[in-house]
Amino acid sequence: MVNTFQALRHLFSRKDSDGKPRAKGPGGPGVELGWVPFGSLTIYSGKLFIGDGQMAPLEPGVIVDLEPGTYEVARRKMDFDGDVRVATMRVVKPQADFVRGPRVGKSWADTATQAVCDYEVYKAAYDELGEAAYWERFDDELCTDDGDIVNLDPDKGAVLFITSSGWGDGSFPVFELLQDGKRVGVEIEMIVPGSSCPF
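Request: output the structure for the sequence above.
Response:
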């Protein structure tokens, strides 16, 4: 891996989206903010990868079956007295009228990040580039404080959406989103609603 931890430094920044220092010290429960669009992800293979952004697509992660098509990726943040963190990431069909269903897996992170991509398409692009070239591209494209889109080969759909709560490593539940009993997406919960900031 080439300077990967340097490339991820912004993801662990203790500054908010305006560049101001985040509030320090534990306080009351965070306030959930609205959903913010992150981008569109086309699933060709029917296999969605969810897992550690730095380990994708090699780390096993969670592989969820989704009907091929275009999905909207969005993030919901929580505000802890000015310390704004990404709490949840969602991948869902546009205009879907859904409800959150049961947990379908548990994702894991060793670099405090979570990412989604078309597993088979992204893995094929990774294999074609090779490890060294892949990490160089990864480092070049990862640059914001709480998330990025790594366009490995966008013409083929090899795109990785990566984000971080900044709260460190651990495991995160993955819930399916259902419309009329049919899976139309998933949510990855990085911060449980009602949580207080641990810093």
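The chain is about 15% helix and 45% strand.
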